[in-house]
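Final report, section 2: Outcomes. Of the targets proposed, ER lumen protein-retaining receptor is the one most frequently requested by collaborating groups, and we therefore present its record in full.
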Amino acid sequence: MNIFRLTGDLSHLAAIIILLLKIWKTRSCAGISGKSQVLFALVFTTRYLDLLTSFISLYNTSMKIIYIGCAYATVYLIYMKFKATYDGNHDTFRVEFLVVPVGGLAFLVNHDFSPLEILWTFSIYLESVAILPQLFMISKTGEAETITTHYLFFLGLYRALYLINWIWRFYFEGFFDMIAIVAGVVQTILYCDFFYLYVTKVLKGKKLSLPA
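The predicted structure is given below as C-alpha cells.
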C-alpha cells in the first residue's frame, strides 16, 4: 500500500468521524443531508459484499467494517435518534435521478458481468455523485456550519488522494482501472468550487456561504 492510498483512507475516516462527532456532540443533524448519507451507506453496502467471499488483509477487512458501521450509524442518528433536528425541508434532492442512471450505467459499463462486479461498479459510480444532495442542500440554505465544511473537505481530499493513488499504481505497478479513475475525476470536479471556498473563507475564519 502506498502513502497516497493510506492518507486517502485516513482522510475518509477523518471525514466520517468528524460528521459523527458533530451530530453526537451537538445532538443535532441540522445542515446534514440525510439523503447523501443514505447514498453513502448504499455505496459501502454494495461495494463491500466481498467481505462475505474473500479476505485480503486485516487492515482491509477492518476498514470495510468501520465504513459500513459508521455509515449506518450516521443514518440512524439522522432519521431516528435526532430526527426532530433533521432539516427535511431543504434536503430535497431527487436521489432517484442519481440511483437509476447509475444503476443502468453499472449494467452497461463494467469489468465483468457478474452480480458482485456489477454491484461494485454501481458503488463506484454512485460514490462519485453521492455528495450532490449535501451540496444541493447547502446551496438552498445558502451557508454551512464550519464543522460541516471540515467534513466535506476531508471527504473531497480522500477522493483527490485516491486519484493520485491510481496514477502512482499505473506508473509503478502497471495497474489501470478506467472505471475508478473516471468516477474519481468526476467526484473531485464536484468538489472544486467547494475546495476554493474552503481555502479562501473557512481557513480564514469566515463562514462558508453560497448563493441560494
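The chain is about 70% helix and 0% strand.
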